[in-house]
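We both want to read C-alpha cells more fluently, so let's practise on a single case. Would you supply a protein for us yourself, any chain you care to pick? Would you write everything just below, so we can both look at the same thing?
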Amino acid sequence: MPKMKKELPKKKAIARSKEKKKEHPTEKEQLHPRNRHRARYEFKLLKISLPELAPFVKLNVHQDESIDFADPAAVKMLNRALLKQYYHILNWDIPEGYLCPPIPGRADYIHHIADLLGASNFGTIPQGSAIRCLDLGIGANCVYPIIGVREYGWSFVGSDIDAVALESANRIIAENLALTGKVECRLQPSPKNFFKGIIQTDEYFDLSICNPPFHASAEAAEAATLRKLSNLQHQEVTEVVKNFGGQNQELWCEGGEETFVREMVRQSRHFASSCFWFSSLISKQSHLKYVYEALTKEGAVEVKTIPMGQGNKTSRVVAWTFLTKDQQAAWKTLRWGAKSAVVDKDDW
C-alpha cells in the first residue's frame, strides 16, 4: 500500500486560509457592489478616524478586532466612526433610545434604488441636487439622506411624526456643511398620513423611500429584541436592552409592516403624478403577496422587487410607479436632462 504523502506546509496554510474565509469571509458579497461596507470593518482605520471608538474595540473569539454588538454605546460609536470615515460626517449623534441603524443596510437601499432610477434613465443614474428624494420617517439619525447626498448628490425631504427625532436630524444637518441646504425636515402633523401634509402643491420627487416599522405590537418588538440579544450573546437574555435603539413608532405599528405598506400604497395613488418611483423596504417575504394585491388594486403601472441581503438576513425593496410610458418619458426630459449633473467628489 503506497504511503500517504505529507501535505506541504504551504498547502496546509492555503487550506486553513480558505477555511477561515468560509467561517468569517473578508467580503460581504451579498451587499451591493458599490456599497462601501462590503469588506469587514477595518477597526484600525476607524479608530484613527474616531479615537473615541478605541475603548469599545476588543478581540473576539476569532482573535479579530470587533465590538460588542449587544452594547448600544458601542454600536452608536461604530456608526459615528463609519459615517465620519466613509461619508465625511464630522458631527453625528442621536438622542438616547432612538434608532441607531446598521449603516451597510441603509447604504444598500440607496444604491439599489439609485440603480432603479438609472434603469429608468437609459442606464445612467441621475445625480445632483436637482434629483429629489422623499424619506418617509427620516428618524433622529438622518442616515438615508446622508448616504444619498454623499454618494449621488441628491437633495432630500425627510418627514417624521416625532418632533424630537426631527430636532435631532436638523442638528445633524446644521453641524455638517455637506448636508446644509440639501436636506429639509418636515413634521407630519397626522400619524395616519404618509404624503398628505408633506408633499406640497406642484412639488415633485424622483424617489420616495421608507423603512417601515416591522412589528405589530410592542410585545412582538420586545420578543424580537430578546431573540436578537440572545443570539448575539450566545445565551438566553431576559431583559430588553435595545442595541440598535428604537422608539415605539420606529419599531411597531398596529398591523405591522404589511398593514403599514398597504396603506402607503393606497395613499400613494393620490400623489401618482408627484413622484416617479415610490418604494418601501419589505422585511418579510410573506408580506409581498398582500403588497402586490394592494398595488394591483390601486392600478400601479409598473412594480419592481429588488432583493437585498445583509448577513443571514434577507430583505427586499418593492418599488412602484403610476406613470405611463409617455409620462415617464416626459419626466426624464423635464427633470433628468441638463439638470442632473454628475457630482464631482473632488469637491467634497
About this structure: The two ends are 69 Å apart (CA to CA). Residues 99 and 246 are 4 Å apart (CA to CA).
